[in-house]
Amino acid sequence: MTTQFLIEQIRKKESFLCIGLDTDLDKVPNHLLKEEDPIFAFNKAIIDATHHLCVAYKPNLAFYEAYGIKGWRSLERTIEYLNMHFPEQFTIADAKRGDIGNTSTRYAKAFFEDLGFDSVTIAPYMGKDSVEPFLAFKDKHTILLALTSNKGAFDFQTKMVEGQELYKHVLETSKTYENSENLMYVVGATKAEYLKGIRSIIPNSFLLVPGVGAQGGSLEEVCKYGMTKDVGLLINSSRGIIYASEGVDFAEAAADKAKELQLHMRLALQHQ
Amino acid sequence: MTTQFLIEQIRKKESFLCIGLDTDLDKVPNHLLKEEDPIFAFNKAIIDATHHLCVAYKPNLAFYEAYGIKGWRSLERTIEYLNMHFPEQFTIADAKRGDIGNTSTRYAKAFFEDLGFDSVTIAPYMGKDSVEPFLAFKDKHTILLALTSNKGAFDFQTKMVEGQELYKHVLETSKTYENSENLMYVVGATKAEYLKGIRSIIPNSFLLVPGVGAQGGSLEEVCKYGMTKDVGLLINSSRGIIYASEGVDFAEAAADKAKELQLHMRLALQHQ
């Protein structure tokens, strides 16, 4: 998917919501457990109920790998379903991968070509030759971890490196990578006060912002400091939406929560 | 597996060799491609031919994920085969994972409990709460990326943070994590001159050293600066061993290459 198409979808739907499909069999409503593939059944119901309210879906791979081959089948079915029925959705493999060059190429092919995701999240620690293999794919997007929303972010990401925090150094350095126009960045919403500095380095790049909802970030603050003329934001919510209800009404409850966020986003876009 | 057991195996076999199972269908000998599961058939033959020469096997997950569900099945069969027939082998899931707390827990369960690996490689960028969920598992080992052997290592890992390089800061910080006795570290052999500094921070921890062979590191240098009284080293070789021949003799050729390295290791242990 081109960035332009994503922006058009955001304008059309008045939403920059990404729904995280962190699907956990312990939290899936009981009545779905009798299905042949409860994880896919859950995802399908969530997607069917929410697709008009969001522009992106983000399965976190850990939740699928945790179930081994069965989990991979659920993941494959989910991305196939999205690509078949809702090709307008931007899909994110939240994998946080990163390896030496030829190995990163393997991951890139797996996520972009075989599974057909539009984007994948990548950890920056191993540097240029671990990231560039992902950037080489046309109209595919590499979402680099910059500043994450967890406490551990302060262990290394905010330490000073050559006069600026490591995450800013990651932003600066990544701009020099080949095909860096295919980069987006993960920026934790709970650090909204950092967004001004981030935008001074990457004024136009899309940011994937987790942590609105369960992790306590503020949507208003993120919009105020992070929004660009082309929006430039994807706000992710996972548990707050998909586990809004444990009952048979889980999909409608998810849609209600998504609608709440979408209305806030609509307002933010109107005041842009 | 306890660290003590691993040390005993190293002494018994006079080897601290780890064989990387980076199995690639493009490089597997032709006659295996007619097998139902060529990747597992290849791995099984390599393991059968080399297990007496090494103490560890390390499948890099990217090579398995690249083949989707089929690849996961090959991985599962490989680790099952190792745990069933060669439980004395230390097994490493080279996954380079790392996510926020509850998600890291999912990965930890998948690799340690469901697949039954002894250890997993982890990227440090997200800090404490992304690493500690792995450390919580008794007699399981978390191998943290410190200094990798690729060129991109110089992008961030060697930058100065509070008076020392980032990778040293990672070493120091990780020592404060709960259950840090379950930590090992990835240290690229091509940076053997760095080993002295690393040993001043972590004098006893095991180091997993890639890059001997295809990536050009020197075994002698690694032993000189990296070895501890309990050895404290696992030297990995992947392509240099498993692709030593493309013919029907691939397993014997792999054993020959492994034997070469084992003899060097035996010497290093005798001169310890």
TrEMBL record, chains A, B:
Its EC number is 4.1.1.23. Residues 16-254 form the Orotidine 5'-phosphate decarboxylase domain. CDD domains: OMP_decarboxylase_like (cd04725). It is an enzyme of class 4 (lyase). GO terms for biological process: 'de novo' pyrimidine nucleobase biosynthetic process; pyrimidine ribonucleotide biosynthetic process. Gene3D superfamilies: Aldolase class I. It catalyses: orotidine 5'-phosphate + H(+) = UMP + CO2. SUPFAM superfamilies: Ribulose-phoshate binding barrel. Keywords: Decarboxylase, Lyase, Pyrimidine biosynthesis. This is Orotidine-5'-phosphate decarboxylase. It comes from Arenibacter certesii.
